[in-house]
Amino acid sequence: MDHESPLYEDLFGIPWLDFNLSTVLMTFVSSVIVFIICVLAARNLQMKPKGFQNFMEWIIEFVKGIINDTMDWKTGKVFLPLGLTLLTYIFVSNILGVITIGVWGHTLWWKSPTSDAAITLTLSTMVVVLTHYYGIKVKGFGEYAKDYVRPVPFLLPFKIIEEFTNTLTLGLRLFGNIFAGEILLGLITKMAFIAVPFTFVSIIPMMAWQGFSLFIGAIQAFIFTMLTMVYMSHKVSSDH
Question: To which protein family does this belong (predicted)?
Answer without folding.
Answer: Belongs to the ATPase A chain family.
